[in-house]
Design a protein that fits this description.
The complex is a heterodimer of chains A (about 325) and B (about 300). Chain A has 13 helices and eleven strands. With about 325 residues, chain A is of the alpha/beta class. By secondary structure, chain B is mainly alpha-helical. In chain B, about 75% of the residues lie in helices and about 0% in strands. In chain B, about 40% of the residues are buried. The C terminus of chain B is likely disordered. Classes of the chains: A alpha/beta (about 325), B mainly alpha (about 300). Chains A and B meet through α3, β7 and α9 of A and β1, α6 and α12 of B.
């Protein structure tokens, strides 16, 4: 026993000694949970590219990411939704929005026989407003000729925890329906007119899978991994689109993106664009306080937006289309340190 | 050899030290209360008492009211106590009075193991095992036999106020049982022997000599369980359905104070929103204090004077 403790202590000393040799620069970040898997992959890979810098990312949620970058307790923040003018005004300096990857929400459902459904904006909004209460509603039937729709009550399932997934979905509903915009609106949490709340993607997916007649929205990755049936959605150009990484990137390419990169890409034009998708951002001060950290951060961003983007699809994130990528790289050049 | 003065000093020091420790608990609660009040400043100023009478929870339009959450917390805890108290007390009685000696240790161990299950694990088990079972078996049966009561009417989704109450009950059974067992064990053997000597049956001995002797202590055990029930978060959030509404049916989804904080705190971006969530925390603290005070009052009024332990 004594020997074990001694060897453990020895190992510990060795370990400290080793980390002491490489004086690593530690860059701290915090925020969104949605991009956490790809960010941690990037930080892992980047450690091989530049061993002198180490990234520490806490996925505490977009709200926390915005708060911490504003309070300057982290070197960069991350958020699934752009910061509001009101919140930006509270920051001591100009905060840049750097879009990194995008994802999609899918409409997942549970019906006998799991037919492939086609839905349009009118049906989706009325399902979630509680106006369509049966699956054999004429509005759904009209879009799905040949599908045997059951006389089942619709059970709406939504996220109960605040999330970027909810933001994208309610952003979409608000953009297509003035009624939704007036009565509910968009946000990471909203006052749902109907339905039951599940915590996290797993909570919503669990309910949808268990309840016959349930419909809910989950991240594309999650629906794919769990082999849940999900709907093709009619886009702004009038085509029914299967949600996929390509159709999200197509939406990004056609979305109207202002120079500050605070954009919404829901219901984007374009023949192949999937309408219920959204980007995620890194939040970085334009004027970096710490020159050494600022330099390393910019180097990392350049790497992430080029090499890093190539890794996105392996983790089921949609990468930025080249047009957007070039604009973001130009923007990164304006960071001062 | 110690001098008289030295030991006197020792006693004093001991007294002060324990007082200090006791005050730490008090200071902690005061500090929590202070921080929560500070954090909820914006909401307190903006909504005032309205927060405690409004049922509206609308983060987009920044309208916040706590009523459905207070309702959910109280009802789910009440269900939990209703289920857990009889089970726990009966288990404790069996363990101390009736079980064969060889069985006591392993049974006790199992109960303590149950207390060690992390609540997120229990929650996942709740979603994937308990809720489907409730939906397929228990709830339909309840509706068939007791459906005339308003509590068992309406659509059955599985996730519900009742599911929330049941999962809390599972979590508080080990606490109440362990504490109750210790209390019953501390009942002097003489009590039992005296009752037996009077010709009492086993049931009478348990009732008169043990349970009524330990009444206050058992009540304390229940209060401890209640404290945990009111604040239980993760597992409840996963099975209660998270819908802020006030309805009679226990099959309908509900929402608790602790759950809404856990759900919405991380993504709350505006000051008013965050502040409202702080105030929910403050309300939870208030509800806990109030319920406990009420329980103590109940005990004083109805339980009457209990037998003081004497040696």
């Amino acid at each position: 026993m004594k020997k074990l403790i001694l060897s453990l202590l020895g190992g510990g000393c060795l370990f400290t000694a080793q980390t002491g040799v490489y004086a690593q620069l530690l860059i701290n970040g915090a925020g969104a949970t949605f991009p956490y898997p790809i960010y941690s992959k990037w930080f892992d890979e980047y450690a091989k590219v530049d061993p002198s810098v180490r990234f520490n990312y806490q996925s505490i949620g977009s709200g926390g990411g915005q708060k911490q970058i504003t309070a300057q307790t982290v070197d960069f923040g991350a958020s699934d939704g752009p910061m509001s003018d009101e919140n930006l005004a509270k920051a001591p300096g100009k905060i840049l929005h750097i879009p990194t990857v995008a994802g999609a929400d899918v409409i997942a459902y549970n019906l006998p026989g799991n037919p492939k459904l086609k839905l349009n904006s009118d049906v989706i909004v009325n399902l979630f407003l509680g106006n369509i209460t049966k699956w054999n509603d004429p509005k759904i039937a009209a879009l799905n000729p040949g599908v045997d729709l059951p006389d089942l009550p619709v059970i709406v399932v939504h996220r109960s925890d605040g999330s970027g997934t909810t933001f994208i979905f309610t952003d979409y509903l608000s953009s297509i329906s003035p009624v939704w915009e007036d009565t509910v609106g968009k946000g990471t949490s909203v006052k749902w007119p109907v339905g039951i709340g599940g915590k996290g993607n797993e909570g919503v997916a669990g309910q949808v899978k268990q309840l016959s007649g349930a419909v809910g929205y989950v991240e594309l990755i999650y629906a794919k991994q769990n082999k849940m049936p999900y709907a093709n959605v009619k886009n702004a150009a009038g085509n029914f689109i299967t949600p996929s990484l390509d159709s999200v990137t197509a939406a990004l390419a056609m979305a109207k993106i202002p120079d500050d990169f605070r954009f919404s890409m829901v219901n984007a034009p374009g023949d192949k664009a999937y309408p219920i998708s959204g980007a995620t951002w890194l939040l970085i001060y334009e004027r970096q306080k710490d020159a050494a950290k600022g330099k390393k951060l910019v180097e990392f961003l350049n790497w992430a937006l080029t090499k890093g983007e190539g890794m996105a699809s392996s983790l089921d994130y949609a990468s930025l289309p080249e047009s957007v990528q070039q604009r973001v790289l130009e923007r990164i050049k304006t960071i001062k340190y | 050899m110690r001098t008289h003065g030295g030991s006197h000093f020792g006693d004093r020091a001991f007294q002060w030290l324990t007082l200090l420790m006791a005050l730490t608990v008090f200071a902690l609660i005061a500090l929590i209360g202070y921080e929560l009040t500070r954090g909820s400043g914006i909401a307190l100023r903006r909504f005032g008492w309205h927060f405690l009478v409004s049922s509206d929870w609308d983060p987009v339009n920044e309208q916040f009211g706590a009523v459905p959450f207070i309702f959910g917390t109280l009802v789910s805890s009440a269900i939990a106590l209703l289920i857990a108290v009889p089970i726990s007390i009966a288990t404790a009685v069996y363990l101390t009075e009736l079980a064969p000696l060889w069985l006591r240790q392993p049974l006790t161990m199992f109960i303590e193991l149950l207390a060690a299950v992390p609540s997120v694990i229990l929650g996942l088990w709740g979603i994937f095992v308990m809720v489907p079972w409730l939906r397929e078996h228990l709830f339909p049966w309840l509706q068939k036999t007791l459906g005339f009561l308003p509590f068992f009417k309406g659509a059955i989704y599985g996730v519900s106020m009742l599911a929330g109450g049941i999962i809390i009950a599972i979590m508080i059974v080990p606490i109440i049982t362990s504490v109750a067992r210790e209390i019953l064990r501390s009942v002097p053997g003489l009590q039992r022997e005296a009752a037996y000597a009077l010709g009492a049956t086993r049931w009478e001995v348990t009732r008169i000599a043990v349970l009524s002797y330990a009444k206050k202590g058992l009540f304390g055990a229940v209060i401890l369980g209640l404290g945990r029930a009111l604040g239980e978060t993760m597992a409840v959030t996963m099975v209660i359905g998270n819908t802020p509404q006030i309805v009679a049916s226990l099959f309908a989804p509900g929402y608790t104070l602790a759950s809404v904080v856990a759900n919405e705190f991380t993504e709350a971006t505006t000051d008013t929103y965050l502040s409202a969530l702080f105030e929910i925390g403050l309300v939870l603290l208030g509800v806990t204090v109030l319920v406990n005070a009420l329980a103590q009052l109940l005990l004083k009024t109805f339980a009457g004077p209990s037998v003081k332990p004497q040696h």
